[in-house]
Amino acid sequence: MKLTQDHRDTLDQVLKWRRDVRHFRREPIAPEVLARLRQRMDCAPSVGNARPWRVLQVDSPAHRASVIASFEACNAAAAAAYTGTAQKDYLALKLAGLREAPVHLAIFTDGAVPEGRGLGRQTMPETLAYSTVMAIHTLWLAARAENIGVGWVSILDPVAIADILEVPRDWRLTGYLCLGYAQEPSDTPLLHETGWQTNTATRWRVV
Amino acid sequence: MKLTQDHRDTLDQVLKWRRDVRHFRREPIAPEVLARLRQRMDCAPSVGNARPWRVLQVDSPAHRASVIASFEACNAAAAAAYTGTAQKDYLALKLAGLREAPVHLAIFTDGAVPEGRGLGRQTMPETLAYSTVMAIHTLWLAARAENIGVGWVSILDPVAIADILEVPRDWRLTGYLCLGYAQEPSDTPLLHETGWQTNTATRWRVV
Q: Does B207 or B76 have the greater pLDDT score?
């Protein structure tokens, strides 16, 4: 299939308007929308076509409370690593929407996946987790196209989360996502708005 | 910006028709097309907005020859790990298009990146490399929308590639990509066509 300028323009809009959302409305996401996200996520590429991502939708209040407690402990430790103004700036940031987001997804990589038969990951075994990352990014773009925001919560202890959710021993947490409708749309990353970090052009050179 | 059914349908087509390409035509990619890919890649999300990806476009025949030698050594070692029919099947696969692809990109993660000021990656430092993976996936989708195929060559020794390209000590290879126009379009992953691996539905359950 030959893709066109229209495909490029539309993809540009999805990429440009994708945002990391941390301020969610409490409105639920309809099951049929979640089903579409799941289908699109399954189009993601993976090393040796191993498709190692395992998705747990964390609905139970007890599980969510444990995850939030883990985030708060990790975030307090992270804040302690900054001093002075940087620490004040850090503490003023809202770094997760765990309490408000209607949908939580804990996404693991199955390190013992039989699919793919090991192909392509003997010298760079990290490509297995990288496959899950591409599935997460696919989900993120698909969510954006449904006007749903995603926040990737990385301030978590991955071993603690695996324990809380009692996953098999070979599963490792790759990403913990909050999904929901954003309180306000924006074309500026939140860390720019708050002055934490501006963009610099990335380097690309010829050798 | 509110995205529409048209955005969803178009994104679906890009996701569905994205393929891992290993059979390239030798036709070059125009510089203005590469420039567009670079711009779109810079829209990728990153932990703490750190944007740690560093891209080297490997053009010199000497560098390319060294990379190909590394691939061949790693691929021979990988083949030796299979026995019997699986080994025969493995050896029959074409796993890289390094000789034909007009563009090679070596994409590194800068582990010493100052941007982002460490935010969000104290408990899961691997999220820095994951940011580069999302930039690679963004590039992959943008390339597909330009009718350019991408092959991610993971059968490489990342330390050897860093040595060959003489990158700074803090840079770690995340992905080595071949880009070019595909010999034949296809909606079936090559590893399915060759019988190496069929798709299974990924698991998604509620806890």
A: B76
Residue A71 lies in a domain: yes
> How far from B139 is each of A40, A96, A153, B36, B150, CA to CA, in Å?
18, 27, 23, 10, 9
In this prediction, residue B119 carries a pLDDT of 83
What is the CATH number for B39? 3.40.109.10
Return phi, psi of residue B119, to 5°: -60, 130
- B56 assigned to some structural domain: yes
Cβ distance of B204 and A90 shorter than 8 Å: no
CB B143 within 8 A of CB B149: yes
Higher pLDDT, B136 or B121: B136
Count of all residues that appear for chain B in the document: 207
**A65 in reach of chain B (CB within 8 A):** no
Q: Return the bridge partners of B91, or none.
A: none
The ipTM value here is: 0.93
Distance separating alpha carbons of residues B194 and B184, to the nearest angstrom: 15
- Contact call for residues B94 and B22 (beta carbons, < 8 A): yes
Q: Which residues of chain A have pLDDT under 50?
A: none
Q: Per the domain annotation, does A11 fall within a domain?
A: no
Q: Say whether B157 sits in a helix, a strand or coil.
A: coil
Task: Note whether A144 contacts B59, CB cutoff 8 Å.
Answer: no
CB–CB of B162/B134 below 8 Å?
Answer: no
Mean pLDDT of the region B133-162: 96
Compute the nearest-CA separation of B96 from chain A (Å). Answer: 10
Q: Give the count of domains, chain B.
A: 1
Of B197, B207, B200, nearest in space to B20 by CA? B197
Task: Show Cβ contacts of residue A32 under 8 Å, excluding neighbours closer than 6 positions.
Answer: none
Q: What element of type H or E holds B63? A: helix B61-80
In a domain, B20, yes or no: no
Which of A16, A150, A186, A202 best probes binding to B when mutated, by most B CB atoms within 10 angstroms? Answer: A202
Q: Report how far residue B78's alpha carbon sits from residue B155's, in angstroms, rounded to the nearest whole number.
A: 8
DSSP state for residue B47 in the 8-state scheme: G
A84 three-class SS: helix
Domain membership of residue B126 as a residue range: 26-184
